[in-house]
């Protein structure tokens, strides 16, 4: 696996993490416990920081990045991802904040200063423009994203189940190493 320091800061890994050998983590990246990083993920904590919560999975080909500080925004835009989040294949997350129990569908783009509350599904291929605030308990779809409908109880249960399934899968991978 490619874990590299940047300006003397190295990624920190929680207990039971799995990082595929083809993925790259650079700089100020902190992973919680039971996180899984799948093939070809790039997480660059170089101009700000990345924090990923417990039992979160980042799937194949996803890109995680952030925005540096500026005159108008001295703190820049870090990337913060909560617990039990499933980030689908080929997702781009850039300088945004995701709460807990979220599913980001394949190919979605979530841009700077977006805030996604807990218990949200973002549909595949959706674009969440800068500064958007997604409220808890809804499905969001489209480009640009729009609130489609409330999540039903099965969908809400699936959010935690999806994360748990990836914990089981990463445990299988770790057992093979």
TrEMBL record:
Signal peptide: none annotated. It holds the Pfam family Hexapep. Gene3D superfamilies: Hexapeptide repeat proteins (2.160.10.10). This is Gamma carbonic anhydrase family protein. It comes from Rheinheimera baltica.
């Amino acid at each position: 696996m490619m874990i590299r320091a940047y300006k003397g800061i190295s990624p920190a890994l929680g207990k039971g993490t799995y990082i595929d050998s083809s993925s790259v983590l650079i700089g100020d990246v902190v992973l919680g416990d039971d996180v899984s990083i799948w093939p070809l993920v790039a997480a660059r904590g170089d101009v700000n920081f990345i924090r990923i919560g417990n039992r979160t999975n980042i799937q194949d080909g996803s890109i995680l990045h952030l925005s540096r500080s500026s005159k108008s925004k001295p703190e820049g835009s870090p990337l913060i991802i909560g617990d039990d989040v499933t980030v689908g294949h080929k997702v781009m997350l850039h300088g945004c904040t995701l709460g807990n129990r979220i599913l980001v569908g394949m190919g979605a783009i979530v841009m700077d200063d977006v805030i996604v509350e807990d218990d949200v599904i973002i549909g595949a291929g959706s674009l969440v423009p800068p500064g958007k605030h997604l409220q808890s308990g809804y499905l969001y779809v489209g480009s640009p994203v729009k609130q489609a409908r409330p999540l039903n109880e099965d969908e809400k249960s699936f959010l935690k189940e999806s994360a748990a399934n990836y914990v089981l899968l990463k445990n299988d991978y770790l057992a093979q190493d």
